[in-house]
Specification:
By secondary structure, this protein is α/β, with parallel strands linked by helices. It is about 30% helix and about 20% strand. The protein has 21 helices and 30 strands. Helix 13 links the parallel strand 16 and strand 17. The structure holds adenosine-5'-monophosphate-propyl ester (PRX).
Amino acid sequence: MSHIESVLHENRHFPPSTTFQAQANVSGVAHYQALCEQARTTYPEFWANLAREHITWHKPFNRILDAGNAPFFRWFDDGELNVSWNCLDRHLTHYSARTAIIFEADDGTVSHVTYQQLFERVCAMANALKEQGIHKGDRIVIYLPMSVEAIVAMQACARIGAIHSVVFGGFSAKSLHERIMDAGARLIITADAGFRGGKTIPLKSVVDDALAMSTISPIERVIVYQRAGCSIHWQNGRDVWWHDCVSSQATFCEPEWMNAEDPLFILYTSGSTGRPKGVQHSSAGYLLGAITSMHWVFDAKPATDVFWCTADVGWITGHSYVTYGPLALGMTQVIFEGIPTWPDAGRFWRMIQQHRVTTFYTAPTAIRSLIKLGADLPAQHDLSSLRLLGTVGEPINPEAWLWFYRQIGQERCPVVDTWWQTETGAHMIAPLPGAITTKPGSCTLPLPGIQADILDEQGESLPVGEGGYLVVRQPFPSLLRTLWNDPERFKTTYFPVEFKGCYVAGDSAHRDEEGYFWIMGRIDDVLNVSGHRLGTMEIESALATHPAVAEAAVVGKPHDIKGETIVAFVVLKQQCPRNGAAKAMADELRHWVGKEIGAIAKPEEFRFGENLPKTRSGKIMRRLLRALARDEEISQDVSTLENPAILEQLKSVC
Ligand code: PRX
């Protein structure tokens, strides 16, 4: 609550400058309100008009929204299109020579890829996939570093109607294995290794380990992009080099014409159970969300902008605002293999200067770490090309917002704080920068066509200032369609009956007197570490599989840079360890979680006890654990606590 209180006191206002407003795609608040009003009065035609305007259809649709089998909504479902065609082919007539991608490698090497070249590379890869026996509807796992190849691989899947499931390179063999099995993937595209911050990050060996985890694997082929040239294990008959399979392919591939509702991809994300959820997105609705938000929120000007979203393609942000949104508009974009702090904390600013970036979209955690490591560095660079800044993934504290606005945007560039999720596919609540006055720490107002609201536990709308469940009242095209292999979980997680047909996001929020939304954080047991979503249950299950662990509970603790860090409370089967033994056990468990899930899920702190604080009915008192993790005085009622003595033990940190 203390965090929420401090945000509540933030009431500085930053209206768009007249210069920005004059050139904006949505110019002035009246324009924004007119769009919202149009969306309200002509729903769902509002979306149909946008779909006709922004998507090139192979077969135009007549049906707009089918809500007959709610919450399994269908949009434009008698229409046909190809997403890759919309991202590539349609640009070739007029600007085939425009740079699509400026790729900067970890070591600083820069390469440019035009739309024509990207089109040819995607076609060659699409033909290669077909040669490997891949058909429409097959699943392909992509486990690649940030590279042009990652985008080519995703677009090639879209071209032939294969469903990609990108797994972030930081996930472990075990996590990769789970995702391969759940999706029933036939093929994996990976690299020998990637480079990040001067280090080589092995990828192929992780794939080998993942595939060795079960005797029966659906995977028939592993395509390996040679990035690092390091030595790797090779399985003849299964493994093929990327360069070998594309070299003899034609550079044209007829796209597979897909139904609007055919799945474009699956992306696994954490929920409140131990098992990740395969969020399934559609083709047309998803694409429409990516395009309209590029136009409204990023005020996209394809002919002149240089767009840079720093997210990895392993996350939804990298799907919507690297692989699909910018390409669908024919933008020029920067993609970056490395990390913001290497070789020094001026890397981002140097890249903005060098590539003349106009629109820069990153995570609050990156901003906070760059403030800490080099607040003076932006001033040493020419950032005059910038015209718009954006943040995503977690709440941004007003101090970081203001630093971003002043030091990076030089008080010239609006800052768009964009609230959305893997599930929503595109921005939901964010300022339209030429129309909406921003307030640091608030994601401001919903996009046109998005009916956001805040409800209490009975599903009633809450008045100004009261925190509750953030929901979206009406279906919108870019919303996930279901959870892969688990439609029942889709229904119960996102459309619980008490919320009467609303999409329940899993976040809490409140509104101020101007109707601005302030996100308060997750309402479920999901953590947000450095903008990445992690389920407490997933980490607890991973810890519980360690042979020495009897029981574990995990909570989040606020952190200056990462937003939140993970604190694990662990009961061992043997005696509770002390001093050196406790530290050694903490290191061992940290390593274990890294292997089970991935480095991003490693707990920062461990606390060992003979038991966990439980109620008399045996329920773990998580609120108490949170207070312990934050080193707060225990002011809560502990009378229901079965075993009060263990609170002292759990105060000591490893
Ligand atoms: O809690 C919200 C937080 O990130 C969650 C979604 O995580 P994920 O699906 O991994 O997608 C991240 C990128 C869209 C949300 O439920 N979140 C995302 N953006 C914001 C945010 N919290 C506050 N402000 C934001 N702008």
